[in-house]
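To whoever picks this up:

The nightly regression suite flagged DUF421 domain-containing protein as changed. Nothing in the input moved, so I suspect the structure step. Input below, exactly as stored in the fixture:
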Amino acid sequence: MDLLFKIDWYKVLVPSTSIAELFVRGTLVYLMLFAILRFLPNRQIGTVGISDLLVVVLFAEAAQNAMASNYTAISDGVILVSTIIFWSYTLNWLGFKFRRFQRFLNPPPTPLVVNGRMMRQNLEQQLISQDELMSMLRKQGVQKMSEVKLAFMESDGNISVITNSAKSTISKEVSQDESELMPQNK
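Regenerated output under the current build:
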């Protein structure tokens, strides 16, 4: 009966590995995975940011190990999760404060179409076929490549499109909005 209700609090709460070693292990794994994910083609990631994806995966792993007793103490998992939070926040803060660092964290937009012409080298670099590009353009309301002034692969994996008619459409919308705001004289 003692086996059912006896808890070894020392084993549960006191880390089985040194805090410094857990921090170094967590740091190395986080930064290694971040670097690998940063340089994969964007289309593999979709709309989830690199650091978001990395944090979720590492949280799940660290928490799972702490819950399943692969560590001998819950504090081991807490230290690893804290290390992941630390590096995620630190990298985001550095990217916010230093423009040069932001370019490392998030790649600049890659032009895929310029003035109706596909940039084949950039398409190959991003592993996007011509058919896939046309499919993405159609989803944005573009029927012909000649309608596209600029199309970019953004750092989050989405494609942004500026059409040749975008400027005239925007000016029409602004004119309509201004006329609605103007008082009507009767």
